[in-house]
Structure formats: C-alpha cells, structure tokens
Amino acid sequence: MKTPPRSRRRTAALALAVAFAAAALSPAADPSPSPVQADNPIIQTIYTADPAPLVHDGRVYLYTGHDEDGSTWFTMKEWRVWSSDDMVNWTDHGSPLDVGTFAWARQDAWAGQAVERNGRFYWYVPVVNDATGRMAIGVAVADSPTGPFRDAIGRPLVENGEIDPTVFIDTDGQAYLYWGNPNLWYVKLNADMVSYSGSATRIALTAQGFGARPGGTDRPTLYEEGPWVYKRGSLYYMVFSAQCCSEFIAYSTAPGPTGPWTYRGTIMPTQGGSFTNHAGVIDFEGSSYFFYHNGALPGGGGFTRSVAVERFAYNGDGTFPRIDMTTAGAPQSGTLDPYARQEAETIAWQSGVETEPASEGGMNVGWIENGDWIKVEGVAFGAGASSFTARVASATAGGTLELRLGGPNGTRVGACSVPGTGGWQTWTSVTCPVSGATGTQDLYLRFTGGSGYLFNVDWWRCAVR
Ligand code: FUB
C-alpha cells in the first residue's frame, strides 16, 4: 500500500547537502563533487545506523539499524538488511527483524551483529526487555542471510542492562559474545549459538588495554560502546566506539580472544555530524573495508544517521591506518551484469525514490515522481545491449522509464513506456529497444511523466539480439 512519502523533502534536498557533506567530511576531496560521483552514504532511501557487515558466498550482507525520520532520540523500531557483491551497488532486502519479532521486547532496535554457523544465520541485538525495562540481548535465527528471522529462544539470551553485542567465532570453533556500555563483557557461546557456558565475564577496562580517557569522568578508559571483535592471522582485534560525546573509533589488540588487550589508538577521528559512530570491519575479495555511520544525508545528525564505507589497507605490522570519512566511498569491486535480472532496489545512488515490500517477493522501488532517478554503477554492457525489460506497476497513468548513461541527463539509450496497470502491486513487464549502451558505464534509470506518483519498478534486465 502506498502511504504518504516519509522523506520526500529529504531526498529532494540531496544534491545540495551532498556538496556540503563533501566539504565537511573530506578535506582532501574535490570540494564540489556532483552527487552522481558520490557513493557515501551507501544507503540514501532511509536513515541507517550501526553497520554490521557479513561476508557470505561472495556477497557482503550488511545488517543495520533504522533511524526513523525526524528522530530526536535513538527511535529505532526495526533492523534492516542490504547486500552487495561490488561494494557500491547495494540491494535493499527490507526488514526481516524488528522489535515485534521478540514477544518479550518493548522498544529500541539498537546495534547488533549477525554471523553464520553451519548454514544458519544468528543475529544478536540489544532491545528493551518489557518485563524489566532494561536492555537485554536477544538472538534471532534464519536459514538465509536475508531472513526471515525468528526469535531463537523466546527470551533474552543475556540481560544486564548493557548493549551492543558483537559475536566472534574463533578458528578453534569457540564462539564469543562481547557487549557493553559502560562496561565490557563476554561469554563463551555454546556450539548451538543460542546458549552459553559459564557466566558473563567483565573485561578489565584499564588504560593499558583501552586508553585513558581525558577529563575526570566516571569512565576511566576510552571504551564507550560498540565493540567489534575479529582475528587476523594470530592477532585479535577489538574495534570500538571511544569517548563520548562525540565518539571516535579506536582499537585494541590481544594475543587471545579474552585478552590481555593493548590499546592501539585511533582509527577514525570524530567526524561527520553524528555524535555516535559505530564500526564494522571485513575483508572481501582481497581488500579490507571499514563500515561506519555519520550524519551526512540531508536532515542527518546524531539521531538520523547513515552508513558509509571506506576501503583501507592494514599497515605492514598489522596496525590500522587512519581512516577518514569520504563522500567518494569505496571503489567498485567488479562490475554489474545487466544481462542478469537486477532488482530495481539495487542502487548506488538515487534521487527521490523509496522502497517497499513487493507482492511478487523482495522489495520494489516506489514513490517515483517526474525527474527522479536511480544510478547503477559500473554496468558491463560489453558489445552492447539491444533491449531492456522492466517489471512495473502503476495505479495511475504510468510514465516513461528512460535509460541514460553517465548522468541523469546523460545520453539517452532507451525509453520504455509504462502503462497504468490498475494497482501499485499489479505487475506487468515492458520491453523497449536499447541503442548505444556498450562497454562499462554508469546506468541511470530516469523516470518521467506527469504529476504525482508515476509507477513502481520491481526488477529490470537487458538483452542482446
Ligand atoms: O543506535 C543506537 C546506539 O547508538 C547504538 O547501540 C550505539 O552503538 C550507538 O551507535
């Protein structure tokens, strides 16, 4: 069902704000990039926070929170999943987990992390336990990285009023759950990933382990929240949100999963217009990537955050380089195949559109008005596409889906007429000829027509004669 646009004004103001964000975030960057050159923040259809990336089967799955539009607190009702196989075109998988999934939970879908074990996906999240009013850690499970997720045990896994779980499975198979704010805790998870052995252990927050916090606060070290634990070679890393507020991202290392931890310094300084930051780190196709959030979208700030990513390389001794926020983001890893079905909600950048669940499965792009567009980056047309097919629906009179190269007003290489279909979820396929789409290009789906909402798009695909 169509509902009134939630963020129409936000997306309409995007071009201006991206120029401001570029200047604020990256002193070394071109001070006046056009929005079509930016890839950060990687999601522009909604506000997202607390990124937790997971590499599975040649794709990056990105688990995030969702800051509601206009929030003046961490007003978060659901978690969201996105995926990409090239780090720039991100597919929206909607919300397969929300507060209501946990019958015992009341509110606050805050920062979690998902991992895979034996073909199942376990998502650890903090949420308020309705019975106690305290933050607890719940665990949801699914057979697919995109869900649907269900409450694995029907009650909190652990509860001590603290937040931000991260889970790490060591090379010997032992899994650990870490979490905490203001303290830092861990438990050893059992192989079933939904129970644990022993009791929660409090990690000693020492200046040697986590850095000394300047100023006479009641928190002795820089550790604030948002731990992210992993192993690289024989070294264990704990990346965390440091100091408050505003936070920066720092890290410690240890010879084992339970320490002793040694503070190693800042990774990402305080930047980007959000007083929190929250990191996730992965390796993917031979490169390392650092996910974080900031307030860079129009209307963005501490409670309306957006996830971004940077590619980086570890120093030779395993330490982190300093990583700054940029609007350029990570370079594309590979290309996008236009001859395979592509979801319309696979987006590098966009202007004006939003997404919603589609009646034929997955998500579709909607709220499309005259002049809106979607950028799909690095599309490998090869010798040339001859036709374009899209799955479309319209409760109004439809419009035109234009194919343009290089920019929303770039060379037009095709245009499909979209008819009214009698409903926003009444789907039909339209096909039109394509001419001049060769090599690897940024493809813009540009939508034109009359006033009001024009049509929805579920997926598209090119063909060669
Ligand atoms: O998103 C809500 C809270 O803000 C998270 O749990 C913290 O890590 C901070 O990012």
Question: What labels would you give this structure?
Answer:
single chain, 465 residues, mainly beta, Tachylectin-2, Chain A, Jelly Rolls, 2 domains, six-stranded antiparallel sheet, five-stranded antiparallel sheet, 33 strands, 5% helix, disordered N terminus, binds beta-L-arabinofuranose
Q: What is this entry, summarized?
A:
By secondary structure, the chain is mainly β. It is built from 3 helices and 33 strands. Helix content is 5%, strand content 45%.
Low-confidence stretches: 1-36
Distance between the termini: 37 Å
Any guess at the CATH architecture of the largest domain? 5 Propeller
Backbone CA Rg: 22 Å
Average the pLDDT over all residues and give the rounded result: 92
Q: Proportion of β residues?
A: 35-45%
Strands, total number: 33
CATH fold node name of the largest domain: Tachylectin-2, Chain A
The count of helical stretches stands at: 3
- Given helix and strand content, the structural type is mainly beta
CATH domain class name of the largest domain: Mainly Beta
Largest sheet: 6 strands, antiparallel
User: Going by CATH, what is the homologous superfamily of the largest domain?
Assistant: Glycosyl hydrolase domain, family 43
Distinct compounds present: beta-L-arabinofuranose
Helical residue percent band: under 10%
Estimate nothing, just give the exact number of structural domains: 2
What is the 3D shape? globular
